[in-house]
Specification:
Blueprint (H helix, E strand, L loop, with lengths): L16 E4 L5 E4 L11 E4 L5 E3 L6 E4 L11
Parallel strand pairs: 1-5
Antiparallel strand pairs: 2-3, 4-5
Bound molecules: zinc ion.
The site of zinc ion has 7 residues, from loops.
């Protein structure tokens, strides 16, 4: 039986992880280095520590929360 309350960590992600400053409120993504890219989109963290780009699955993570994500640097 699955539990909707997600396990503490690590999170399973498919995309690249981008670490940003803790005081960052918004990030912009345009697909960056991936082959196709996508229209530039702004995402607000909206009081969360991470936000996922709906286009390219990149995950923007605040510095303080990065330990919850696999390091890809
Ligand atoms: Zn993106």
């Amino acid at each position: 039986m699955s539990n909707l309350h997600s396990a503490p960590a690590p999170l399973s992600i498919d995309g690249e992880v981008i670490i940003v400053n803790n005081d960052t409120d918004e990030v912009v993504c345009n697909g960056g280095s991936i082959a196709l890219g996508h229209p530039q989109v702004w995402y607000s963290f909206d009081n969360q520590d991470n936000v996922t780009c709906g286009y390219c699955d990149r995950v923007f993570v605040k510095e303080r929360a990065k330990t919850r994500f696999p390091s890809q640097t």
